[in-house]
From TrEMBL:
Name the UniProt record assigns to this protein: PPA1309 family protein
InterPro entries: PPA1309-like
NCBIfam families in the record: PPA1309_fam
Amino acid sequence: MTEDESPAGPAPIMLEAIAAEIEAFVGQSGWDLGPMLFALVPTRLLAADPNASDVLGADLVADPEEISDDAITPIAQEELPEGSLDEALAQIGWPGEVVGCGLSQEIVMLPPSAEPELDDLTIEAAASRAVEHPDRREARLVVVVLRDGRSASILRLRGAAESGDDLLTGPDLAPNLVAALSATLVD
């Protein structure tokens, strides 16, 4: 077993790969999208379903023995309801076959120097001011969590056309979102 492997399931590197796969999928549709939720399902379980070839491709369904026990497939869910993301996530529960979930969400980031301007505002007022702030950075955040508590996050900064997009990774990019997604996985 390498240092990136774990006897309990997929290695952290794999979780970052799943987050990157979700980000690339969402990125194909461009920017200015609402949050997107994904179920993380064992690929081997999907391969046992003859209707899964649309999701997995005919090759994997034809030979499910070739699929690693740790392989996980993200499956896009229906659009989340309008309103607060916290409230929407609080209404979600997953069946036992779902080993984790992921969320892609566009966010606005401000430099630390902008925090004093927002301290005494309501959440709605602070969000409105952040969107108009001259030093804001727009980004797409993807967080994935597993039932065992492991998580990974990827943040793609929206850049100018000539500079492209920047990509950041790390387990602690969005601890509140990790907690909210983890709560959807509690039995």
